[in-house]
Amino acid sequence: MRATVAKIHIKNFEHNINLIKNHIKKGTKICIPVKAEGYGHGSIKIAQIAQKNAIDYLAVATIDEAVLLRKNQITLPILLLSIPQISEISNLIKMNLEPLVFSEQYILALQNECKKQNINVKVHLKIDTGMGRIGCSVENCVEIAQIISNCSNLVLQGICTHFPVSDSIIPEDVDFTKKQIKIFSNCVEKIRSSGINPGIIHAANSGCVLAYPESNFSMVRPGIIVYGFPPDMPQYEQILNEKKLNDKLKPVMELETCVSAILPHKKGDTISYGRTYILTEDADIAVLPIGYADGLLRRFSPGLKVKINGKIFDQVGRICMDQCMINLKKNSGVKVDDRVTIFSDGIDFISANDIALRTNTISYEILCGISKRVPRIYIE
From 3.90.1300.10, 3.20.20.10, 3.90.550.10, 3.20.20.140, which CATH number describes the 10-242 domain? Predict the structure, then answer.
């Protein structure tokens, strides 16, 4: 196995699931997104753990992601969050997926294929209440629900929406989210009043699960919080503090590598591509077998720090595709093959979220960016 590994702490994942279960109303279903390889944690294993922990639904972005799960004995209902090509509908049906639908063209294409195969498919009507991505308009929601209801081979399993700023405490964003919740609730009631059973009502992402209990309806879709991090906005930590949850979410992934070489260098020597780093004194430079092809992006430097044997060291020079360099200075005591922590739990050492905040991005991108060539090790 490679020296560079991503350690996935199963108990932390289960802890976060239980934290959510204890926070939401009893009987509320939970759908966990396992798209993008389970936010980089490994979709198969994450799905297996979710299934073991009585999660109700999983969610993916592509049919290929679902195929991988079905081939590995994942039997939970799976939501398909993105819109597939018409040519993929046959496989969608074969994988027993529950797609989000919102356009008449897609709904009728799905109905036609279901009729050919003489099979019924459960679908979820997506309503755009302010995300501006996919979904039918608020004005057309009853009409689209009726089209679904008129399709003999389609079953309206649920109605959903999505929130773009539920993780923000900026007053206008709070008002926007509350307005979305109200609009969505009205849509559901209009559909119900038309004589159509709306099925499972789901809207709450990570931000709404914690901050807007009125949005939890009959199912929630927590994403990043099950993997141990707050949503996008740094201000969201205030909400976590108010809910006394900030110190309870536990990061699931830890990224480690080892020292592959230590080379002595003189004052004035330059390190890595572009000769952007010049030593101001004699120093030992450690080489680590991890680079941007593993997910340790070039923009993480300068400023990235690592932990070796309990001591903190600076990463120096440009991060390469497969390697990066660390300034050990002199007499560090570090040896070849010593383990190196790139990010951890945010307590013993920095977390993926700390790197994200420093590099003006979000923890999602850091986690999803850890490439497939980095082995995942699952720790009970």
Answer: 3.20.20.10
